[in-house]
Amino acid sequence: MNEPLPPRLGFWDLFTAVHSPGTRWPGALRAALALALPGSVALLLGHDAEMLLIAAGGFTVIYGEGHPVRTRWRVMVVAGLLLVTGTVAGAFVGSVVWEQGGRWWLLLAALFTAGVAAVGAFVQNALRLPPPGSFFIVMVTGGATMVARLGLNPLEVGAWAGVGALSGLVLGMTSGRKAEHRAVDTLEKAVEDFAAGEASVAKLHQARTALSHAWNMLADAGVIRAGRIIDESRGDLVRRTLTAHRRLAALNTPPDDPEELTDTPNFIDLTRTAIPHTRPSISYRLYGSLHRHSHATTTAWKVFAAALAAAVLGIALGFDRPDWAIVSALLILQWGPESLPGTIRGLHRLLGSVLGIGLFTVLHLLELNLWGLLLALAVCQFFAEIFVVRNYVLCVIFTTPLALMMGNALALPLGETVVSRTTEVLLSVVFAVALLWVGLRDPENHARLMQRSREAMMTLLGALLADTPDRALAQRRDLQFELLGERRAAQSLAANLPDAAAARWNEHLALQSAGYALLDRCNAQPGTRLPIGDIQAVADRLS
């Protein structure tokens, strides 16, 4: 196996990257309707302030987009429950803060929201979730600490958020063409676009993203498992994906590493042109990240430290929305990016927020009535879904006024809102970027993942001593998961600490080669026990 150290991309490539090539307007329309329909009913019944709370639960539909029907409803139910629970918990905390009065009681809201953000960052990285991760859940939970000023009790807040969540669940299950079909269509188009044009690192990144998404969709839809087709009625989707995968792997690729274009890696090895295994269980992924050097743990600490620092300084300066600074820090750090991509994301947050606050200013000056406010919220929801996995600048332009309007900022003085929210964003960017460059840049995560990969290989070898590869599906699946994680950690190490990566690179390549050679042997003869000599030879390579 011969893979050079990945080079580093330039500033402009990172700043202008568009991450997802797929069509998103149908899902965006559902997201807007999930807010507009129940919001209209609330207005007709005279529940004016409650309309804003429905928007909190309406984010449920965003979490279901791109998932096959088989898993979509479960994803949305979990997301809806988290959104509703977050609004209730946030409203309880907010009721204490605003009843006590006094600026420093806002520290309670800051600690609560920063803690939720840290837990969300840990879970989404441990499980390797796709965007938007925990972002909207934390945004809603933090924003709920402010709703006590509207005179609503926490259970009432949760009930109205539940209306939005239920609306999102119903609309989310009404999508037309199956997600796995759309994913394969998008993959073929992305590969064709890359093949037809100049060897662009951005186009390659989009094709890799589409490939990773297609394999995940086929697994979630129950089409593939254990590296093989289990639903032959949809086997053509698998064969089309394999063809696109092999075509992409055979094309001449640009020298830059496309994984640096985003802080949400694809966890796919383009050279592996075989049907992949599915993901391990949730408990396996969470347990594997319960270590102080893990990427998930390191990211959670960065999020907590930057978020709390920005919030506390904001409170000291007299601002009253600590959740705003915390959500801003989370948006930059939530996936544990490398230094340069994370800095770009910070600039995205700053630029997008400034433009978003400008859009909010226009809406404020228009003095919208309640129906106009509902329309504005729905439009922002639409475009937030369009851009949430494409480009952070464009996404933040629309999430910023959405969050401000949900917090009833239209009733506050415009100048005060603009100054305070802009300053809080700036504080969060400063603290988040500082942590990216000077804090917790730990090479031990890669060393830990190398050891986990070795242990996964030894576990598989032990299982193969007693039975056939077909009876060791869980061990094969776990080994693939660890190898992909180790590969991504090696790429991250090369981006942040290139000297340390260079010293380990040959060891990394040898580990990947041995692991995939073992998996290939299992795939070639799944029903036949491996000879003892072959198993011993692999074990000797690891000792």
Automatic annotation (TrEMBL):
Instruction: Return the protein name.
Output: Integral membrane bound transporter domain-containing protein
Pfam families named in the record = FUSC_2
Q: Which organism is it from?
A: Corynebacterium humireducens NBRC 106098 = DSM 45392
- Topology relative to the membrane, per the entry? Multi-pass membrane protein
Q: List UniProt keywords, sorted A-Z.
A: Membrane, Transmembrane, Transmembrane helix
Q: Answer yes or no on keyword Nucleus.
A: no
Q: Domain Integral membrane bound transporter: where? A: 310-434
In which domain of life is the source organism classified? Bacteria
Where does the record say this protein resides? Answer: Membrane
Q: Which GO terms describe its cellular component?
A: membrane
Does Transmembrane helix appear among the keywords? yes
User: Major place of localization?
Assistant: membrane
